[in-house]
Amino acid sequence: MAAQGEGGRRDEIKTHFGTREGSYKLIHHTECSKVNRAGFNGQTNPPVKVSFITVNDGTALSDRFCFNVGKELYVSTYKGVRKAPDLSKPIDKRVYKGTLPTCHDFNQHLKSPDSVLLLIGFSAGQVQLIDPIKKEISKLYNEEHLTDKTKVTCIKWVPHSPNQFLVSHGSGQMYLYNEELPCVQAPPHYQPFKQGDGFAVYTCKTKNTRNPIYRWVIGQGAINEFAFSPCSNYLAVVGQDGHLRVFQYNTMELIGTMKSFFGGLLCVCWSPDGKYIVTGGEDDLVTVWSFHENRVVCRGQGHKSWVNMVAFDPYTSCVGSDSSTDVNGSSVEVLGLTSQHGLGVGEGSNHIGKHDSHILSAQDHSPNVISPQHPNGRHMVSVNHNASSSALDPGATLSCISYRFGSVGQDTELCLWDLTEDILKQPYGKPRTSSVGLAGLNSSSTSLPRSNSLPNSQKSNNSVGYVKGNDVSINTYADGHAHSIQNAVMNANSKFATLSVSDRKDNSEKKEHKRNFSLAARNSDKSSVVKSNNNRMQDNAMKLYGTKACPRLDQVSMLEPLVCKKVSHERLTSVTFREDCIVTACQEGIILTWARPGKAVTDDT
C-alpha cells in the first residue's frame, strides 16, 4: 500500500511525498479570510470546489482559477509553482447573502484575456452566469425557485456548445439550459420525451422555447456529480442511490450502469482516452468501470472515509498503441511522462511545455491517433524520456498501459493510484489478489500488483494490523478505529440494506428533501412513471450484487494506492492535476499546490 515515508507519526501533515518518478513538494498554500466562512442559519458550508481556465493573450498562456468557500467566491490569477495567488487583490470577489455557492464551471470555448464566462450554482437552486473580468454580464436562472428548490450539486457547460449548460440538483433532477433563453415565469409543466430504466426525460410545455429545455429525472435521491467523456458524446452520472449511469448524450440512451458496493456515489471522472470511468463514494472505495466491457474492473481500498473527488492525471498516464480503440473508435496512443526527474516535463528537447510544439490540436493529429484531452481543452501527446529509440520510432509497437489517478476524501488524505495492464486484463471472476494491509504481514502474503509493489522497507502503511476471516476483513488503523469490509459470503440482503440514504439524515432533512422533490413531481402528472422505475431499482439493486455491475469482493481485483498521505487537518474536497503541479483543496478553503518532481522553483534540501 502507501509508504509511510519520512518517518514520524501518521497524523502529521505531509509537506512532501515520494513516488516512483520522484518527490512531490508542497510549494505554497492559499487561504482566504475566515470572516465569511460561516453558513446561514446553521447551514453546513458546501464543499470547496476549484475550477481552472487557461487563456492566450497572444504572447503567452496565463491561468485563472475560481474557488468557493462559505459565502465567498474568488476568481484570481494562478501562477502554478512560480508564485502563490494573492487573494488580497483578486480579479473578482463576491460575498453572497442568503445563499451559498456550491459549484462553478468556466466556459473553455468562449474565452479571451479580458473576458471569460463563469457559471455558478447555489445552495437554494439558483444559477448565475457572470464575466468576472469584464463584469458586464450577470444573468440569473431559476431566480424564483420555480424550476427546482434544491441545491445545485454540479454544473457544467455542454462541450462544444457556446451557450448550453447542464445543472444537477439534490432532487435527483438535471436540467439543460440555454443561456440566451429566458426562464419560465410560472411553475413549469412538463411532457414526457423519453424514458428508460431508472430515468426519464421531459420537455417543458410552452408556446415559446424557454428554460429549462430538458428535464432529466435520474435514479432515486440526489445526483451528486456528472461528467462528459473526452469525446463529448457520453455523459456519466453518479447519485445518492449508488448508481453510475452512462448515457449517449445526444440520443439520451442509457448504455451502461454500475452499482457501488454500498452507499451513494459522490464523484466521477473519465480516463483521458475515454475507456475507463473512476468513481468514489460512501463505501470508502474507488471503483474502476470499463466503458467497452461494461463492467467493474477493480476496486481500490485506501481511504478510511468517504471519497469526495477523483481525477485522472493525463501527464503520468501511459497508453500503448494497439488494436484497442477509444470511445470514438480510433486507436489511442499516449506516451507516458515517466523519467528519473519525474514526469518527462523537465529539461530536454522533447519536453512538454506550454509553448511546446508537442501540444497539438485535434486537427494536427493523424486520423488514426486520438490523444487525450488536456484539462485546458487542448489535446496532448506526451513523450517518454526514458523510452528507447525503438519506442520513440513511429513504426514501433508500444505495449505500455498505465493510468494514474488521484482521490481525496473525508479522511484528509490524498491517494495516488496506478491502474496497470495486469489489472485491466484480469478476467472477470478471477481477480489478481492484493494484500490490503501491509504492516505486520508475513512474506507468505499475496504480493501486490506490480504497479503498486513496493520494497519491503517501504511497506509501513496506514494499517497496523490485518485480520482476514471467511466472512469479514478488518483493517485496524493507527487512529484506533476498526474498519471492516465484508466479503462475498455475506448475505446480499444485509449488504444492500445500507443503500438507503435516509438512514443518514435526520427527520428535518428528510422532510425538506421530500418537500422539494414533491414540488418538482407536481409539475408533471407523468412522474408516476419515474416512481415506478425507482421502485424497480430497489429490487434491481439486490439482483445486481454478484454481477459485473456490482461484483463481490472476490470477483474483481483490489487496488492498493501508490501513495496515501495526510495533507490536511480538514476533509479534502478537490484535487486537480496540472502540468507542473497537483492542486488540492480542503473544506476550510485552503488551496495547496504540490510541485511535481523537478518542477519546484527552489529546491529545499
From TrEMBL:
It comes from Plakobranchus ocellatus. Residues 428-466 are annotated as: Disordered. This is WD repeat-containing protein 20. WD repeats lie at residues 258-299. Keywords: Repeat, WD repeat. Residues 441-457 have a biased composition (Low complexity). SMART domains: WD40. The keyword Repeat applies. Signal peptide: none annotated. It comes from the Eukaryota.
